[in-house]
């Protein structure tokens, strides 16, 4: 086991394969986690408590830890390692100690002011529900401390190209939460979820620790707050953390709004959001991450032409995969939610609301994917300010739209009638929650177009008109694909005699309908001679040769 974890990945392709496989495994465990949560609690008060309590520790972990790792540890450690291995380890030791003291201090402060934080995050919670949320929040503030250390270790292991251990860490994090659902919750109730989160953080750390020690780390009690590398890490961390903060504040505000709606609204929103993020994590994140160093290199070489060409080709690739995937999720939203969440206390009304939220999320998921790419283009040009400012504007737009849509759904307006009739929500309580994903989709589209306009102004023409024509083509063939999917949904149960009242029948109905839709989409893409379709052709040919 030790020798396997210590293997150094020699090539980019093999590293991408490991990370991609781990991403799929982590996504699967995330879906299993959500299914177990839905089965155990349904969309009610207890799951609302968990998601609300999770928000603040998660916010701290993301803006401090992820900001530091992505912006600081890897480049600075690499620089020191080229000069001297001893200097590199001195930097890591100082950073770990300083960062650990900082995280413990911040977490301790947050534990003390947890009641105030929950008043901000979930102003609609009262009495026992509020007190239980405060308790879970305090327990889960152990996780940012552990994850802080663990993610610094991840950064160091990435420099040594030991990707297996780092890719396993998120998987073990989900395993810890699943363990909490299965074994802690039956003994201590919803508080067991908080213990599961802490266990997940511990496992995230432990799976990497042996490889970290094998790489040469030896702990020293050195607290050099003025170490040159530590100061540089802080400088690099701040802008990135501010950018991450905007998107996380957006989710916290949405949670606060959801807490004032019907019981279960926070759970409904989060469950749908988790499902739609599968598309972002499997399509947009890999493409934007892979192209980022290339864009950075072209900017450093002052090669604007190749920068724009590479950006444009990646822009098209994300659209080529994201747009049909979003149509697919919209058409199969009910079946997807039944397969992933439909068991135990998760009732028909819960399924309907999550499915509608998933459908409304899918309207703007292509824009969320493109925002990642466009932001990377700005970062490559060493411009972190523009994406951060646009993120703040998008948050304001989202809050404004959320409140408007909620008000329209609460009144006896034509808008409420349209939504309830379109998605068959007549007679359901808590319909107002669907305003939240609708607002996020509109604000994401606004953010995407604003970033595109600013990038066009600052960087230059990346064939925006040509991209618009391509987008229209993709929309049209995705619509045709969706028509065939709806037809398949009706005919497949009849032809194959599937009972869609049980999970087995729904599963095969979904799989076969998806396959038909994908084949139709690819057939139309080849017929239109879209270059992106050749990616699929090359993959099939290479697989056949293997």
From TrEMBL:
GO terms for molecular function: lipid-linked peptidoglycan transporter activity. The keyword Transmembrane helix applies. The keyword Cell membrane applies. It is found in: Cell membrane. The chain crosses the membrane at residues 12-32, 59-82, 94-122, 134-156, 163-185, 191-214, 249-269, 275-297, 318-341, 353-374, 386-406, 434-455, 467-487, 507-528. One of its GO terms (cellular component) is plasma membrane. Keywords: Cell membrane, Cell shape, Cell wall biogenesis/degradation, Membrane, Peptidoglycan synthesis, Transmembrane, Transmembrane helix, Transport. It comes from the Bacteria. Pathway: Cell wall biogenesis; peptidoglycan biosynthesis. InterPro entries: Lipid_II_flippase_MurJ/MviN, MurJ. One of its GO terms (biological process) is regulation of cell shape. Its main location: membrane. It is a multi-pass membrane protein. HAMAP family: MurJ_MviN. Belongs to the MurJ/MviN family. Involved in peptidoglycan biosynthesis. Transports lipid-linked peptidoglycan precursors from the inner to the outer leaflet of the cytoplasmic membrane. This is Probable lipid II flippase MurJ.
